[in-house]
Each structure stands twice: as C-alpha cells, then as structure tokens.
Design goal:
Helix content: 40-55%
Keywords: Membrane, Oxidoreductase, Transmembrane, Transmembrane helix
Strand content: 5-15%
Number of strands: 9
Oligomer: single chain
Family: Belongs to the fatty acid desaturase type 1 family.
Shape: globular
Largest sheet: 5 strands, antiparallel
Subcellular location: Membrane
Organism: Nicotiana tabacum
Structural class: alpha+beta
Strand order of the largest sheet: 1-2-5-4-3
InterPro entries: FA_desaturase_dom, Fatty_acid_desaturase
Number of helices: 17
Amino acid sequence: MACSVADSGFLFLASKQRPIHSTRITQVASSGAGTYCLKWESLPQIRSKQKSCLISLRKTNVVRAVAVPIAPSSLDSAEDRKRLSEMYGFRQIGEPLPDKVTMKDITETLPKKVFEIDNGKALKSVLISATSYTLGLFMIAKAPWYLLPLAWAWTGTAVTGFFVIGHDCAHKSFSKNKLLEDIIGTLAFLPLIYPYEPWRFKHDRHHAKTNMLHEDTAWQPVWKEEFDSFPALRKAIIFGYGPFRPWMSIAHWWLCHFNLKKFRPNEINRVKISLGCVFAFMAIGWPLIIWKTGIIGWIKFWLMPWLGYHFWMSTFTMVHHTAPHIPFKNSDEWNAAQAQLNGTVHCDYPSWIEVLCHDINVHIPHHISPRIPSYNLRAAHQSLQQNWGKYLNEASWNWRLMKTILTICHVYDKEQNYVPFDEVVPEEAQPITFLKKVMPDYA
C-alpha cells in the first residue's frame, strides 16, 4: 500500500511483500514546497523506533524514497512559462536570455532619441506633480471625513511623483544643467523627508548590482541562517515580508539613509548637506503645519500622504524585482544582462497612477540604462518589445500578483529561489496563512 505526504514533498511505500532489489523507478511529484524528483531505490530492512520518517507496520519491509529537490519548472518551456504566468499573475514570463547577450547588445538596439534630455518635458513633469499635490491638499482640507481616504490616496500618489522627479535628477537624466538637477532633486525629496544624496548613492548600487545576493541595496530575500539566528525577531520579519511589506520601505528609509557609517569617505560631505536639508524641513515645516492646523492637521496633511507614498514606494520596488521565477545570484554567477532585462518586471497600473508617477513602472528600460528620462521610458519599452520582447517579464497590476509576492517570496533558496515562511516555520507563519485566506486571487 502507498502513502503520500504531499506537504513535505516525500512519498513512502510500505509493502507486505518481500524486499525490492535491483529496482529503480523515477517519477516527478509536485507539492506546495516545490517540485521533487523521487528516485525509488532498494534499501535494507530497517527497524528503529527513532526513524520517524518511516511508516511502521508490523512484520513489513519498508522502502524509502530518496527525495532530491530540483528547480521550479523550466522557463525554457513555453508551456511552463504560460502556466507560471497564470499561476503568479503575470501577463508574460520571458524566456531565459542567452548567456552570450551583453548589456551593450541590448543598449545598442535602443533609438538614440530615448536618451535625449528635454527641459520642456522635465518642466511639464514638475508642473504635473505640483498641481496634483496642491489639488490633493485642497481635497484633504475640504473633504468630509468619509472621503478623506480617497483624498489621501490621491495626495500620496501625487507626492510619489515628486520622488520620481528626484529619482531622475539622481540619475542625471532630468536636466542638462547638473547643478539645477541636484537642487530640484533635493527639493523634490523634502516633503518626503528623504535625504537626496544618501538615497542617490544607495540607489546607484542597486542598479549596478540588481538581484545580486548580498550586494543589491533594494529588496533582498530573507536568509535562512539569519532567520534561524534571531528567533525573537522571527515574527517581526514574517510580518515585515507579509502583511506589512507594502510599507517596509519605511524601515529601509530609516536604516539605510541616516547613518554616516554606511557611506564612503568621499560621499560624507554631500550626505551631510542632504541630511541638513531634511532636518531643516522637519524643524521648520512640521511646526508650521502644527501651528496652522494642529496635531490632527499634521496627521491629515503630512503623515497620511507620506504613508501613501511609502505604499507605492514599497509596492513598486517589490513588483519590479520580486517573483518566484526571478533568481538572486551570487556575484560569480551573476549576469548583468539577465538581471536587468530578465530580472526586471514591467507592470501596467491604472492610467491616473501612471500619469502622477511619471511612468516609473515602465521599468525595464530604466534598468537597461538609467540615463533614459522618465518621459522617454515608454518609447524605450516599445523598442525593447520589438527587439527583445520574448525575454520580457510583463504584468498588469492584479491581486494574484500581489498575493504571490506577499505569500511566497520570503526565504532564499538556491534551487527554488524562494521558500515561503509557512513551509519554513509553519507554527509561526499565521500572518502568511491569513493572507492566503483573505487576499483575492483574481488576475
């Protein structure tokens, strides 16, 4: 008789017949933990009360399956890519990029016009953000209490546009005047109390080391060794990579941008200037808001839109580079073209979000070359679709996509890319099982 234990990925066979010799059967079975290659091999009779993995039957001989973990379904197969696309909430999962392709090969296919800086278009993006943010503040001031969430959603999205402007300035793709770029970038970041230069230095490393283990400064998988080493923090980590993940950029903002020890000596002076600007805004701006509107006004006009901004900051970042099929690689295995073209996700959002956020989610061309201004990203993406379309990861925002990221993409595993918390520590993973039950699953 046979007994299948699907959750663990193992299959056991107990038989009253004589032991099996010189017999080898191989089959593939799938479970929630991934895909395993099961190789049936003859084993000697074993009698041990301590072998909990064997089924104990009176006067029986037991054959044990040797379970060898293998990688998720191959992306080489169009059928597998289509199945995974549907399962994860993608419109398309790109086929693997050949090793011989380089970043230069990809960049040279882009039209030169997408690299051109247009001060008129740059000014237009500033006007869009300033107008939409002002409108948002007006809506907050006039809206009845039951419409305030809508006003906060609009204003938080509008102020995210300021971040995108500063983001372009940091990449030197906003204006032909480089001093003006740094001034505008610093000012654009001030309502977010984000220090411009510290963020710029960290973000440059993200582009240079996208999805590289240890080195990437954006989202990283949880390391099993670290997760096991800090049992007191496990619950916080599970919440952080689960229900609270759409706001985890707050932790990243605090931990990575205000500590001078995290920067190189030649960066320190510029970092100090940015920190001085941020602290001056807090020292002057916050008391003015409180003086005019009170503490409740500070919450209404600043804190809630700021939380809305961090929702988009976290959500955009994790969608851009996080999916069960997108690997993180050690530096000796890392390939720049594969990480930037194959490891970056294009995601379509509702048009009002795209307009207010200046097309930052047209993200693949931005990783091919950060010198492309945000107002040229769509033209660059069209070129990539024409020349490299079969290798692109593309999605339209949907609940299944978010559910995949929040409930699967947790602990790093070299073979499977990610292992969910509820498989690593099922007794502590209630926040993840809760998300699986309550989050919608439609794409």
